[in-house]
Design goal:
Elements: E1 3-8, H1 37-49, E2 56-60, H2 64-74, E3 79-83, H3 88-103, E4 108-113, H4 121-136, E5 140-145, E6 156-159, E7 164-171, H5 176-184, E8 188-197, H6 198-208, H7 210-218, E9 228-230, H8 243-248, E10 254-259, H9 269-275, E11 282-286, E12 292-294, E13 300-304, E14 309-313, E15 318-322, H10 329-339, H11 354-375, E16 387-388, E17 399-400, H12 401-416, H13 423-438, E18 448-449, E19 455-457, H14 462-478, H15 485-498, H16 517-531, H17 536-553, H18 574-578, E20 579-580, H19 582-599, H20 602-616, E21 629-631, E22 636-638, E23 641-642, H21 644-657, H22 662-680, E24 692-693, E25 704-705, H23 708-723
Parallel strand pairs: 1-2, 1-4, 2-3, 3-9, 5-10, 11-13, 12-14
Antiparallel strand pairs: 4-8, 5-8, 6-7, 6-8, 7-10, 14-15, 16-25, 17-18, 18-19, 20-21, 21-22, 23-24
């Protein structure tokens, strides 16, 4: 018999307002000691799993980061199942039971609340092990706590005897007089902890709550989806009902094990005060007794001549209440809903939805980034800066063609998306400098100039040519009145093809001549010219690159895309051939999703979805950002995380959501919101950004590279496109206008 402890992270904890709010409920707050109640629970129950079982955590999508971060602090591994919306305890327990039964048909589950205070861990575990024997034999065992006072905060259990016995009745929370009568009659507190085999619970649900069971089964994620998985949208169809009403009051298998260890659900401020560990922050008491004080750093609370008060301070709200009236805080919360709903939760970007994040993103581009980089980041002659220091200074560096081309793309795309700034002049001056300084007599583009603008490196990298083509196409699409745009692009394209084989891939200059990355940007440029009304040669070249991707770049079995190859376009040997970049999985997924739609090619669309899944493997848990590099077996090669993979994750999730089925669409839109939040980690309020997030946290202290703005603006462009799509819940139309 293997034990599977399952922590249920539901519950709003509204009686502990203002500390406990929907985005940070009480279980994730240190209320009685230095660790949160959730962490205390995880530490208490993890040993029950031993080597055969596994810890399960069921919580809401909103609380994902709290769960992952706090487990990580304890170095405890768990299978985390995230509910798309709360459907009460019956559905949460059903999901855990179905997951455990799939792993182990004989699994016994110890369902425990995440927010209970049980100081004696050993006594608790001993009780669970004793109850598990009866649970393995088919009983549904709950732990009944010997009361220490006539509490009105708990439900009660009428037993048929002492020790482990059958349940005679479950009764609701009584008033104080009735609670005293229950204690005198030998009733126990209902702790809300249940020990039951997965098979038994599934059988009971199928009899008493079949709709709950069906929703949980239908929403169960794939077996190999990782340690943190979201339940599917089908889960939301479950009736919203507690396990008490769904099963426990109807089953004939209910047993109760009497326990006498100290237990509290810490449901109100009087219980926190009684724990003796609830005070936090700086305070001064003068003739004040029996008071609980909680205040954030930097806040001093002074109390004079008062007794038995809870004084709870948060940045946006303060509660002062008589500790004997703690249960009434819920009434205060109800009044707040009507009079000041913004104080029901914390104002934080961590829970920001996609629509709100997109609007804030538009504001940041419109009022910060685009003005900064067009004023401080472009010289009067049209040359764009390579980077800006964090105090806004342009550095004297060699000037790369890819930066000049990318910035032309940025401001042409911004103009097309409605920016009212002087984008047209910015683009025109940028093009003049591109033509005069970067284009060679053969129509190709040299790669680097000196800081003063003279030729430095004449090499015509395929990568750079792709960005010049993209810049020209975007300028044309935005309405730049330059009759040479298309001719220059065709000349450059034909010069590229003139030195390449008639079929297959094009070679890149430098140490990696056979690579996928340069082809990716060439495909992007070809699609841009198709959209801008270019000749048939663009579609032909795009199809050539797509066929190369489908037959050579993408591993037929694994569905991932490699970076480097040999002369015959087979995978490169050694470490080069094992490299998988999550950002490029997302970027290719975005491009192939566009091609699949444009060409009506189901095989290309399917490849895009597989690539997205491969990229998703490279999203770390703490913080939730796309890392730089994996190996072909899925192991992490580099936990550093640059800015640009976050933008590509955002683009890919958005475009795939547009044509996904309902359940998959919801998951992808949630991914998009998460990717946008990841991007915000890098952006600074003044229109700059950090580029490289380190594995140990924090960023490399370096100037903001101009080349990132291409990725940022392209991601916003996809937000604009997706906002125009119909039927996408959580998304609205945005623009830079």
């Amino acid at each position: 018999m293997a034990l599977y402890p399952a922590i249920m992270c539901g519950g709003a904890g509204s009686r502990l307002w203002p500390a406990s709010r929907p985005s940070r409920p009480k279980q994730f707050i240190p209320l009685a000691g230095n660790r949160s109640l959730f962490q205390e629970t995880a530490a208490r129950v993890r040993p029950l799993a031993g080597d055969e079982g596994k810890l399960i955590v069921v919580g809401g999508l909103l609380h994902r980061d709290w769960i992952v971060e706090q487990l990580g602090e304890l170095e405890i591994e768990a299978q985390v199942l995230l509910e798309p919306e709360a459907r009460d305890s019956a559905a949460a327990m059903a999901a855990a039971a179905c997951w455990a039964a799939r792993q182990d048909p004989e699994a016994v589950i110890a369902f425990v609340a995440s927010d209970h205070h049980i100081p004696n861990h050993d006594a608790f575990r001993k009780a669970v092990v004793e109850a598990a024997e009866s649970a393995a034999a088919g009983r549904v065992v709950t732990l009944g706590v010997t009361p220490t006072e006539p509490s009105e905060a708990y439900g009660y259990i009428k037993t048929s005897g002492r020790g482990l016995s059958a349940v005679d009745a479950f009764v609701e929370k009584p008033d104080r007089v009735q609670a005293q009568a229950y204690i005198e009659a030998g009733y126990l507190w209902n702790s809300g902890n249940f020990i039951v085999s997965a098979a038994t619970l599934i059988d009971e649900l199928s009899t008493h709550a079949p709709a709950v069971l069906e929703a949980a089964r239908s929403g169960l994620p794939e077996l190999d989806g990782g340690q943190v998985q979201a339940l599917g949208s089908a889960f939301s169809a479950s009736p919203k009902i507690s396990i008490d009403y769904a099963v426990m009051e109807k089953t004939a298998r209910a047993s109760v094990l009497e326990v006498d260890f100290a237990w509290s659900d810490l449901g109100a401020w009087d219980a926190i005060a009684a724990s003796g560990e609830g005070d936090t922050g700086q305070h001064i008491f003068e003739d004040a007794e029996g008071c609980l004080v909680r205040a954030p750093d930097g806040v001093l609370v002074a109390a004079l001549g008062v007794r038995n008060l809870a004084i709870v301070v948060e940045d946006d709200a303060v509660l002062v209440c008589d500790l004997t009236q703690s249960q009434g805080v819920k009434k205060v919360v109800e009044r707040i809903k009507a009079t000041s709903p913004r104080h029901l939760d914390f104002e934080t970007a961590d829970k920001e939805g996609l629509a709100e994040g997109a609007a804030r993103f538009a504001d940041w581009l419109r009022m910060r980034a685009l003005p900064v980089w067009s004023s401080l980041g472009q010289a009067a002659d049209g040359a764009f800066a390579e980077s800006l220091s964090m105090d806004g200074r342009s550095l004297t560096l060699p000037r790369r063609a890819r930066v000049q081309a990318r910035q032309i793309f940025v401001y042409a795309a911004a103009g097309a998306d409605g920016w009212h700034g002087p984008w047209r002049g910015i683009v025109e001056r940028g093009l003049e400098r591109l033509y005069a300084d970067y284009l060679r007599p053969d129509g190709l583009c040299r790669t680097t100039l000196t800081a003063e603008g003279g030729p430095l490196d004449e090499t015509a990298y395929l990568y750079d040519q792709a960005f010049v083509l993209l810049a020209l196409a975007t300028a044309k699409a935005a309405g730049i009145e330059d009759p040479t745009l298309e001719g220059r692009a065709v000349t450059l394209r034909d010069a590229l093809l003139g030195g390449a084989p008639a079929t297959g891939g094009l070679t890149e200059a430098g140490e990696h001549p056979y690579q996928s990355n340069a082809h990716m940007h060439l495909l992007e440029a070809c699609l841009a010219w198709e959209t801008a009304g270019g000749d048939a040669g663009w579609a032909a070249l795009a199809d050539r690159v797509v066929d190369l991707a489908m037959t050579k770049f993408i591993d037929a079995e694994g569905g991932f895309l490699r970076e480097f190859f040999g002369a015959d376009w087979s995978p490169a040997t050694g470490e080069d051939g094992r490299l998988v970049e999550p950002g490029h999985q997302f970027e290719w997924a975005w491009l192939l999703a566009r091609v699949g739609r444009m060409r009506d090619r189901a095989d290309v669309s399917a490849a895009a979805l597989r690539l997205y899944g491969q990229g998703r493997r490279g999203v770390s848990e703490r913080p939730m950002i796309a890392v730089d590099a994996l190996n072909v077996d899925g192991t992490v090669r580099s936990r550093r995380a640059r800015l640009w993979p976050q933008t590509e994750w955002l683009k890919a999730s958005l475009i795939l959501a547009e044509t996904a089925t309902d359940g998959e669409r919801q998951r992808l839109m949630e991914d998009a919101a998460t990717a946008l939040r990841a991007l915000w980690l890098y952006l600074t309020p003044d229109g700059l950004w950090r580029d490289k997030h380190l594995p140990q946290g924090g960023f490399i202290d370096e100037p903001a590279p101009a080349s990132s703005l291409y990725h940022i603006v392209a991601a916003f462009g996809q937000l604009v496109e997706t906002g125009r799509s119909e039927g996408l819940r959580g998304m609205t139309e945005v623009s830079l206008g």
